[in-house]
Here is the input.
Amino acid sequence: MEIIESPREMQQWSEAARHRGETIAFVPTMGFLHEGHLSLMREGRRRASLLASSLFVNPTQFGPNEDFARYPRNFERDCEMMRTVPVDVLFAPRPEAMYPPGSQTWVETTEITRGLCGAHRPGHFRGVTTVVAKLFNIVKPHVALFGEKDYQQLRAIERMVRDLNFDIDIVPAPTVREPDGLAMSSRNAYLSPDERRKALSLSCALRAAAAAFKEGARRPADLVAAAARILESTPGVKVEYVEAVDAETLEAIDSIERPVVVAIAARVGNTRLIDNIVLNPQRPQAELN
Ligand code: AMP
Here is the structure.
């Protein structure tokens, strides 16, 4: 696996590869890899002749009181895990190379990032779409993979790619879970054993919403109530939001005629966790994967 730090060198690597007729799949990450990241990489491997990944803890997507400084990092371990896939090239820039003094250009989606996490993390998605746009211009992939775990992020990036005419296929990948249902996340490393047990309430809540849906509930408020009951009965879990919104636009709906996403953000101790499930009235039997 080649490791490249400089944006210019990365562009040259990709230009040369494209010139040779290779296709490039790309999986951007913030590192501290787990099976969720690896599943995206393996899917990327299948979809192109070369696989690129990036490791960059992007400062512009963290708020002033968020966990940028303490975000878990382990470069050597991440490289080892990428080699098992295998990843062909890792782009791992320094923050100064991504945001040199004088940087002042932002990429921002509007409606799609107004609600859910966007309402609770001002500036977060602006940081995400800006860094992903930069990474796309640096890595020059044909296809890029994003996890459904970060559902609003996936939708925002799809929107950005359409709106700004990026010539890149965005491929969504399903959420990878621990055997007991907890969605894998680098932030799970923050959880104490007691918090780890309480964190299960998120996936339990989504299962409860899916069960209500299966039994015929077709009002978003009923799905939210089913999920909220579980979360609110778990001491030590502080709900930031539970919402059931249109899975495409992320806008509020009155009744469910098209796919709906039930999305949760909650704090378990000091750790902010998110999870979601998409429910489709055409296939009401669907369960949490
Ligand atoms: P991150 O390193 O958290 O920025 O995540 C990098 C990519 O991995 C994003 O596209 C995430 O949506 C995806 N990802 C994170 N956790 C999971 C998971 N449990 N299952 C599938 N994809 C994931």
The chain is about 40% helix and 20% strand. The chain has a mean pLDDT of 97. Strands lie at 2-4, 24-29, 50-55, 89-91, 143-147, 169-173, 237-246, 260-268, 271-279.
